[in-house]
Amino acid sequence: MVIAFGRPYGGYPISFYFVSFLLPVIIGTSYIFNSYLVPKYLLQKKYLKFALYTFYTIIISLNFEMLVIFLAFTVLANYEYDKMVPAATNIFGLAITMYFIVLIKAFMLLIKTSFGEQEKIQTLEEKQTNLQKGYLVVRADRKNVKILLEEILFVESLSDYVKIATSSGNPIITKEKISGLEQKLASPFIRIHRSFIINSDKVDSFSSETVAINGNELPISRTYKKEVLAVLKRG
Fold first, then answer.
1. Residue 2: what pLDDT?
2. Which domain holds residue 165?
3. Cβ-count burial of 211 within 10 angstroms (0-12 exposed, 13-18 middle, 19+ buried)?
4. Could you tell me if 36 and 122 lie in one domain?
5. Which of 184, 170, 174, 165 has its CA nearest to residue 144?
6. Long-range contacts: 225-228, Cβ < 8 Å, 24+?
């Protein structure tokens, strides 16, 4: 906006000061539209409420914009409105520019949300595929290794590698990230700590702080405690 209105206002410094007056209105409108209206109504397909509340937002923001412009003209133009060049008094152009900025942000948010949904769908499909196959494939010892899901006791992240403990007693060591394995493992597997994923079917006992699996006592972090305890109590 500074570049667009710099020349008509007779200089970029004045344009910068004028746009600075409008900045709170732009930020406020953008926040309400992109952080509240789009996720709560548009993305939830509540189109009527989205249109209605968007209309209210435009009316309110326009009123604030008129107030800000009046104050800006008072301070920057010293009430000499008739001496300003036409482009500098183009209120409609200012409004269009402001809402254009808001809509660009909304468009970027929709694209980001769309990609996020695609990733979620892909992750769910991968988990479903693994469950149907009944095994997990990981890279270990420079080869692809199949591990039966029912044999996995827990997954432990150890700095540069991940250990997959199995009921056979032979752990599998892989360079894969625990976050990547979490995306591949569905129920009964559950994350209990940033360093641990467990097979809830293999839990021997548990408390509010730890779970015991095959003689191993593993910690439950506060981040995952509520979800973990709910799963374990359901059995």
1. 45
2. 134-234
3. buried
4. yes
5. 174
6. 227/190, 228/190, 228/192
Among 41, 45, 23, CA closest to 33? 41
Report the phi/psi class of residue 35: left, alpha or beta, with left for phi > 0 and alpha for psi in -120 to 50.
Answer: alpha
Query: Which residues, at least 6 apart from 30, have a Cβ–Cβ distance to it below 8 Å?
Result: 101, 102, 105
138 plus 220 within the same structural domain: yes
- Packed helices 12-32 and 47-77: angle between N→C axes, nearest 10 degrees: 160
Return the pLDDT at 82.
53
195 shares a domain with 141: yes
pTM: 0.49
Last residue of a domain, one of 129, 154, 171: 129
Indicate whether 10 and 112 sit together in one domain. Answer: yes
Query: pLDDT under 50 in the chain at which residues?
Result: 1-11, 79, 81, 85, 87
**Same domain, yes or no, for 152 and 55?**
no
Q: What is the DSSP pairing of strand 210-213 with strand 205-206?
A: antiparallel
Q: Is 220 helix (H, G, I), strand (E, B) or coil?
A: coil
Contact 231, 200 (CB under 8 A): yes
Domain count, the chain: 2
74 shares a domain with 140: no
* Residue 57 CA: distances (Å) to CA of 33, 45, 49, 64, 72: 8, 18, 12, 11, 22
Closest to 28 measured CA to CA, from 63, 77, 4: 63
